[in-house]
Amino acid sequence: MNAVTQFVSTSLRRPPSAVADSGVNSEYLVRIAGLEKVYQTKDGNDIHALQDINLDIPAAEFISIVGPSGCGKTTLLKILAGILKRSAGDVVMRGRSLSGPSRELGVVFQAPVLLPWRTVLQNVMVPIEVQKRDRAEFEARARQLIAMVGLSGFENKYPSELSGGMQQRVGICRALVHDPSFLLMDEPFGALDAMTRESMNEELQRIWSESRKTILLVTHSIPEAVYLADRVVVMTPRPGRIVDVIPVDLPRPRSLGMQTTAEFGRFVAGIRRHFSSAGTLNT
Amino acid sequence: MSVDSKLLNRLAGNLLLSLTTFVIFVVGWEVAVRGLGISKIVLPPPSAIAVAFWESLREGELHWHLAVTLYEVLAGFLVGSIGGLVLGFVIALSPAMERIFYPYVVAFQTVPKVAIAPIIVIWFGYGVASKVVITATIAFFPLLANTIMGLRAAPQDQVEMMVSYTASRWQVFRMVRLLQALPYIFVGLDVAIVLSVIGAIVGEFVGAKAGLGYLILQKNFNFDMAGTFAILIILSMIGVGLHGLIGIAQRRIVFWMDMAGEHVVGA
Q: Cβ separation of B166 and A107 shorter than 8 Å?
């Protein structure tokens, strides 16, 4: 709770205009200020999917968002990705207000969302083709990424020939191929079995530490959020809002074995408390 | 390797089964017609049909009629399906066009083409042109309906994925919607090609100077039932052949999908 008030007060002290002037030199990559999303139901009622969301994300930070279904975490991610319009507030990236999809973003979705008529390599190259970047140059990068996630030799296979975990890894390569500075991940491992999920978590930590990308991961798994994140943002529903931001100062690199330590357990318990008290226990 | 041989075994088994069924059916037919003393004018035995089939193949006359009907089928199919495809794109891409055109299209579709065939023959004459037009009106709708449906079939998550990578509307169309529409368009083509054979024959029945439909009427008039049946066999061979060609094209072009036609529209 303290973290929230502290964070809100610091972000209020810096008006967005001053931020815009400071440009690239600002210490954070993305600032979310006063963000709201209001849906109207058929009978004219307003539903606050997101209410007064404030968050500063420094460059190269790994941030996790946890919360039960309906807390607006996916809505927040879709607004950041430029797929959904916000109702109020601002999203500022490198001093510029975001008003739609950005070439600086890479998005990993809940489902792999691969195009079935494209091979693995062709799927990874989708952002390059869309953004009309140099194909030869980025194809080399695409092949490196495919190798990094352990899919060497599968470049010319079609998605239907891959397992779910392999498909999701292709989705991660696609999100990284155009070298975005900000990676958005919407419950990317939700559909995977526990074993695959753990190894994907390890892999993601490695990708993050090697690429130094800024990553925002939406998940409903508290251990996954703690294991990966520098800070865990806790959201609750009706209205969707941030109730806590918890810095996770566990040493890196983190091992899967760390999840059984008391320290790790304290972080998990601290986050879970928010949901049990709100009567929306999840996970 | 073992999967391949299993598949081959199954295919061979299927072929054997359908061959056996065919032989039993034909022999049963022959025995029944002879045993019950059914007149040749009512139901000719398979042997008589086979003879008639062989003889009409040897006569040069049949080739001409076959060529005429094939031409009508293919030309009508091309004109009708290209028309349906083009209007389908227009309607799927523009809600305004949909409001303007679609009510007329549906109204036109509800009119049985057999009923307007005589009018078309009067307008376009007893020659090949009227058959092409009749066939085209029949081939048109399956393509139209399937093209519209296909262009709207792109899953929302694929569109969102493209948009998140800053794809323009045109890029989403070219890289996703068009390809998602292909399986539907092939279903439309498959339905249209089979209907095209019917369209050409209906046109020839109404009034023609040549073609397999014309030949059927002539043979029927002379009580040449074996000859009529022989032409029916040729017609079904045309239908099966064209359907097979579309199937081959589909498997090559829409290779990522093994769809069997569960989305048939406008049949």
A: no
Whether A109 sits inside 8 A of B179 (CB atoms) is: no
The tens-digit pLDDT sequence of chain A (283 residues) is: 444 444 433 333 334 443 344 334 457 899 999 999 998 888 888 888 899 999 999 999 999 999 888 888 989 999 999 999 999 999 999 888 888 899 999 999 989 999 999 999 999 999 999 999 999 999 999 999 999 888 999 999 999 999 888 999 999 999 999 999 999 999 998 878 888 888 889 989 988 988 889 999 999 899 999 999 999 999 988 888 999 999 999 998 898 888 899 999 999 999 998 887 655 544 4
> Helix axis angle, B225-253 relative to B178-206, nearest 10°?
170
Cβ–Cβ gap B175/A130 under 8 Å: yes
User: Phi and psi of A218, rounded to 5°?
Assistant: -95, 130
In the 8-state DSSP scheme, what is residue A247? E
How far apart, in whole angstroms, are the C-alpha atoms of residue B164 and residue B150?
23
Residue in chain A nearest B183 by alpha carbon: A117
Nearest C-alpha neighbor of A133 from the set A159, B121, A141, B265 = A141
Q: How distant, in Å, are the alpha carbons of A194, A228, A273 from that of A266? A: 22, 15, 10
CA-nearest residue of chain A to B178? Answer: A117
CATH superfamily label, B42-253:
MetI-like (1.10.3720.10)
Distance, CA of B30 to chain centre: 30
User: Hey, is the C-beta of A207 within 8 angstroms of any chain B C-beta?
Assistant: no
- Bridge partners of A58, per DSSP, are A28
Interface contact flag, B158 A131, Cβ < 8 Å? no
Q: For residues A124 and A175, what is the distance between their CA atoms, to the nearest angstrom?
A: 8
Torsion sign (Cα): A147, A152, A156, A159? negative
| DSSP letter assigned to residue A240 | T
pTM recorded for the entire structure: 0.80
Cβ(A106)–Cβ(A178) below 8 Å: yes
**For domain A60-89+96-104+181-277, which architecture applies?**
3-Layer(aba) Sandwich (3.40)
Q: Which helix (H) or strand (E) holds A218?
A: strand A214-219
Contacts of A122 (CB under 8 A, 6+ apart): A115
Query: Which residues in chain A touch residue B255, judged by CB atoms under 8 angstroms apart?
Result: 117
Domain spans in chain A, listed from the N-terminal domain onward:
60-89+96-104+181-277
Handedness of CA B44, B47, B53, B54 (dihedral sign): negative
Q: B69 and B212 in contact (C-beta within 8 Å)?
A: yes
Q: How many CB atoms within 10 Å of residue B50? A: 17
